[in-house]
Amino acid sequence: MPIEDIKLKFAQNLKNIMQKRNKTQSDLVKDLSFRQATVSDWLNGKKYPRMDKVEKLANYLGVSINELLMQSVSEPPIPEIQLTDQEKSMIKKYRQLNADGKSRVDYVLNMEFDFVNNSAEKEEQSLG
């Protein structure tokens, strides 16, 4: 396959995966410290990233390297989830945080989730 076709296929796969993951070009630039012009060139099929960048993209988007590179992305569709206005607002705020802020929010959320689940399990055990 000619290199131009490979670049275009990568661009198409990257766009599709980004759309499925609700990621924008700005998200890639901000979260992965890529240059805006570089990401634009990838998405327009003008350039092809080095393998270390492909790996970083795959990890960030939660896909395999093959899914970014292969001929057709045959990933099952992500089910549509209806969000409340409050949930949408929280997600927007979360996306504006830097990595440290996201880590703190994740920690608090996981702690609260564990607390609620452990409390429910203890209550269940006392009733049974």
Question: Topology, pairings included?
Answer:
Elements: H1 3-20, H2 25-32, H3 36-43, H4 51-61, H5 65-69, H6 85-96, H7 99-127
Description:
This protein is mostly helical and 128 residues long. The protein has 7 helices and no strands. The protein is elongated, with a radius of gyration of 19 Å. The N and C termini lie far apart (64 Å).
Q: In what range is the share of β-strand residues? A: under 5%
- Which geometry do the CA atoms define? elongated
Tally of helical runs:
7
Helix content: over 70%
Summing up helix and strand content along with how strands pair, one would put the structural category as mainly alpha
Could you tell me the radius of gyration in angstroms?
19 Å
Low-pLDDT segments: none
User: Mean of the pLDDT scores?
Assistant: 86
The major beta sheet can be summarized as: none
Notable traits:
elongated, mainly alpha, 128 residues
Quick overview of this protein structure:
The protein has 128 residues and is mainly α. It is built from seven helices and no strands.
